[in-house]
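Hello,

Following up on my earlier ticket. Below are the two sequence lines again, exactly as submitted.
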Amino acid sequence: MKKLINKPENVVKEEMMGIAVAHADLVKVSLDPYYVARVNAPIKDKVGIVSGTGSGHEPVDYGFVGPGMLDAACDGEVFTCQTPEQVLACDRLANGGRGVLNIAKNFSGDVMSFEIGGEQAQAEGIDVSMVVIADDVAVENSTWTQGRRGLGTALFAEKVCGAAADQGRDLAQITALCKKVNDWGRSMGMALTSCTVPVKGSPTFDLPEDQMEIGVGVHGEPGRYRMDLKPADEITKILAEAVITDLPFKKGDKVWALVNGLGGTPLIELYVVYRKLAEICEGHGIAIARNLIGNYVTSLDMAGCSITLLKLDDDLIKLWDAPVKTAALRWGM
Amino acid sequence: MKKLINKPENVVKEEMMGIAVAHADLVKVSLDPYYVARVNAPIKDKVGIVSGTGSGHEPVDYGFVGPGMLDAACDGEVFTCQTPEQVLACDRLANGGRGVLNIAKNFSGDVMSFEIGGEQAQAEGIDVSMVVIADDVAVENSTWTQGRRGLGTALFAEKVCGAAADQGRDLAQITALCKKVNDWGRSMGMALTSCTVPVKGSPTFDLPEDQMEIGVGVHGEPGRYRMDLKPADEITKILAEAVITDLPFKKGDKVWALVNGLGGTPLIELYVVYRKLAEICEGHGIAIARNLIGNYVTSLDMAGCSITLLKLDDDLIKLWDAPVKTAALRWGM
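Thanks for your patience. The regenerated structure is below:
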């Protein structure tokens, strides 16, 4: 295992300590339980936005805490869901008196933790709602999931719900917005290589040098099928067509397109994929109105990519364009 | 070779086509010769800022074209320097009547191309100056270099010179600024794995599973020495102490710190490195006033990192903080 780490069991703790010193102007960090919250949380008279999952998907979710996006985020150990205790701590810090939206990705442990932690927060008098993002079209159920897994749509949901909260919208409105985003987003990924979980020390799965996994999950869960390596254009077509036909996206739709690297894929390759994705969308009469290209929803050091398309209306475009200042996503501030 | 590419010889062309459709609001792209320029270039009455090198180091340099940073960038094929023809095309597009600063990284081919291309631009009446960034302390000469190689300091130079140009400073002032940045920045990198150049199809160098290369170059050039794998804290100490003692950085210095991934290293590991770097700097009485953490100066899919420290004064801090809007670096706009 070749990694820039110390003791494998300390990776997340030391990552959090790094975040604390790197972004002290932006966030405050707790190591027990783990969470990251805005430095000035809770912010009065604004709906709070919280998300969380396992670590190993950086910048998900700690990189998205800051003005215009999340109020707090709680991630567990590597590929291990956050605990209810973490959720409760975040909900308390995110509550400025107008309630909190918990945005969960659809993995069984994540959802259960948000349910229990959210109930505990409600018992303390905090108005809590939850939306579960389930946008991965690859498989219906998976190793750690009942129903579709959560993927790139969560990033968009966190951004636009953060913007809507800044605008003063109430919890019911933002919850409805988040549900709409989930309804309108679809994703699918593929892996060229496995990732290696630090405490395991060896690849999660074996993938022969001439094969790839289509529809892989963000923890290396099996996808739809394995096949021989193909050129980027064919891979892009497989992912894009699966995503487009699922919603389905239609001629005249405006979309947000995310071409996402899984952590070990360099940017040069993601632009090769984006080029073909844009061509495919154009062929369908689908207009990419906004995009994002980079390693944003990762699986440690896995090589591969995922594609997310998400239908846009004018409100969503305005909310996406609104100022944001986080470690991983920033503009207008 | 597991990569998201089509024909290996088309990678850069298809990357450029991807950039063209992805960032059409920001840049215009030429495929013959390759370059990326601001969509509204040339911008009148502003000094133009140009950089370039080989491809394979993304987001260097195309990802840094836009308001507040570069006017144009020209990169060659993978790990192949840009041509004088590309430099000339960029200098023409960057010239708004007050001249152009060409920022070169110190690799022999890069520098020669900027010299010849710059001379051709001057023959056309464009006022051109050049600064060569040579901040890599690992080795004095290397496979493709006379003198120190150019590394992370180039990114900072491009950002602050772009900001200075926006403020209306003249070419002589911005050239002096760029030289000061080069004098004040020091870097060193290390590799856990080799990269694989697409047209070669196999790793550039062999690095046993239990070894790493300290002081590696961005094309996989040999560094200072090989050694057994060490924990991240020890690696960070080796890089940081080499950088700190070289300038040397002193107690009371304010610095910009870049913890840079080489393309195949996930963000979680870079924060582990940053944590230790911050501790080491604190131990020396060096204050990190600004930082950047991510995969910014890459070597295709190489796993590893580099560290850059750069002495700051109030002017450099203000120029770093000034608004910028590029594909890879953005704030305030």
